[in-house]
Amino acid sequence: MMKEIYFYTKDNVKIAVNQYQQGFDKVLIIAPGWFMTKDSKPFYNMSIEFSKYLDVLALDFRGHGKSGGCFTFTSNEVKDLNTVLDFAKNNYNKIYLAGFSLGGASSIIEASENKYINKMIVVSTPSDFNKIENNWWKKEAWLPTIKKCEPKVWMSVRAGNIFQKKIKPVDIIEKVICPTLFIAGEKDPTVYSRHTKLLYEKAKCEKKFVEFKECYHAEDLYIQEHDKFMELCMDWLCN
Fold first, then answer.
1. Whole-prediction pTM value?
2. CA 33 – CA 81 distance, rounded (Å)
């Protein structure tokens, strides 16, 4: 059963969330990256699949989909996650977090301060926003983008000030205490896999790093290696 619910952050931004409520006592919060929403096909399908095993809360970050405000490229998105986590900790015994690309960066920032997260998965996550490669002209970047083209979703995106001060995930990853699975695509043209590997190497929590050969960026791993991706994530969350 899925329903759309809304929250307001501490800075009064409306955040839209798809809640897949199946009656489990554990929940997975899904945090998409830039230009992706809870209703983007990969995340919509992923949410349905995960909801067979645990409840799911998939959010639109500010400046995306049905949420308000403008996207600030990790400067303020942690407030969005914090608001959803406040709801989760009052309704579930266990909280898991899965962040993709910049959603993964915001997840690490949140997890460095929030001790209610039991386990985390970060996919194609940059160690430092200012060092993202973003080789958009490579076929590994534009071809998957074309295949994922959803004009209605993309037209909902509103960018804010990209130059706002940002916390670098690499500077605070050592503060994360929850077990964390780090996933990267070997041929990611947007966030090279070295970013995620560096975060893995610096993390002091229980951890695992998996690089998907011949795969690209973030949700592309779910699309390209669907069965492997789902099995890996479920094994991490349930064991």
1. 0.96
2. 13
